[in-house]
Design goal:
3 domains; alpha/beta; 10 helices
Amino acid sequence: MTRVRLSKALERAIGSGHPWIYRDALAGRLPAPGEIVTVLDRKGRFLARGLAERGPIGVRVFTTVDRPLDRSLIDARIDAALTLRRQLAPPETDAVRLIHGEGDRLPGVVVDRYAEFAVLKLDGDAILAWRDAIEASLRERLPALGVRSLLRRSGRGEHKQVERVFGELPEAPVEIREHGMRLLVDLLHGQKTGMFLDHRPNRLRTRELIGNLVASGAAPEVANLYGYTGGFSLAAGLGGAASVVTVDVAAPALALADAAWQRNNLEPSRHQLAAVEVEAWLADQRGRRFDLVVADPPSFASKQASRDRALAAYRALHAAALPIVVDGGYYLAASCSSRVDRAAFEDTLLRAARSVGVELQVLERGGAGSDHPVPLGFAEGEYLDVVLARVLRGG
């Protein structure tokens, strides 16, 4: 077993739950990705044990206790993750994140459940060396939850692959339930592992908000920007929205949104689809106003070097979207860019509001659901920032 020693004062951060040790903070030669590494503090005492990684992250930490890193540890962590999901299972919901990587002390391992299917995604080279052990453990445990098929997703973009670990590949989009709402998920071609499970509490909040507006006598109109397969649109529709526009450049995703709208027995005339770029759609509204606008774009900053460009993109999006919200209406803005923290994201909202002459009254701040746990000492894990604000004009 390889031993390396810290060369920077990171003992407290690692002891507090940070699961990454960067290569430039380590003295000593690291083995091949996936090999077990014991990390010593600057005085030569045991600090952590993890797996060697390729790239800037030198070691992914699995434990700060001097214990073996083996199949039994993997099994114990998977058992703990599945137990947590059983304890926190949302009502009328069969789509959840079963394992959330670093949040479940299994760095690089993501498992999402979609009804009778589950999807495994491994992040980084380190965990790939342990793929067989992880899949064997999941094969033993998932059927007891009602999962009959496990798929493995790898690669990105044109190189994305979906392979069968056990069970069968789905022949069509899979129907899932989320707080009773029906959604359609393309497990073979969809984003991430199929859809964005992390927004579950924010979709529920949208449904509640629209329901409250309807109960007060309003007939709210909603625009869902970057709507993908229509999660926020369906939530608004079930809340009683008079009309919903789902805007996304991907026509196949909009087709799923429309099909799901019908499966929820919603009136077809209340749902409009706009298969165009969001920027072009916003520029073409010519005075139309909405009671709620949801702006949930894809990540604008996949790496630190693109952070400034991402901040400018958020400001531009808000500045274009805020004018189409009615006075006293609502704006739900989200960022999934891990390189942009909450303070920086909210600053883009503040600057954009000033530039278009409105004020924002923050009502709620949110993030991912409880099936996306984050170690308290791991700020990078708080990647999803959501702000629900009221838009005010006239000073």
